[in-house]
Hints:
With 145 residues, this protein is mainly alpha-helical. It has one domain. The chain has a two-stranded antiparallel ribbon. Strands 2-3 form a two-stranded antiparallel sheet.
Amino acid sequence: MFLVAATATPLVAAAAVGGAVAGPELPPKIIGKTSINLEDIRDHSDLVFESAAGSDGPPITREEFTSMELPDYVAPDSSQEKLLGRLFERLDRNGDGQVTRQEWDTQTESELEFADANDDGKITLTELANARKNLDLGGVLNLLL
């Protein structure tokens, strides 16, 4: 979740001032914008994936993933593990208990494609709001925008 947090309630894609997961912060060039280029989201996605993988590197285990810290605007402390558990199951496409880079990228691209309704290579606040309304609360975009 990248865009302005004040106008976007938690769901799809991603971040606000400071990054959704403890770790990589959002690049200054995207903070406060009314839209974000898909390439900038993909770049941030790379940082979030690497941060989640930790020092052991990929793939990401369920334990690593569900122990990530999210800001309160994504999920209050009391519901973070449940939210991350649901998202992990969505990301772990083959059900082997770990998320590979390919699984991460496949889900991220699917959600970005859905969110970029007019296929112009960027997501506006309106597109983000519509995507959040139509995707469930476990979308990977919550971690990115």
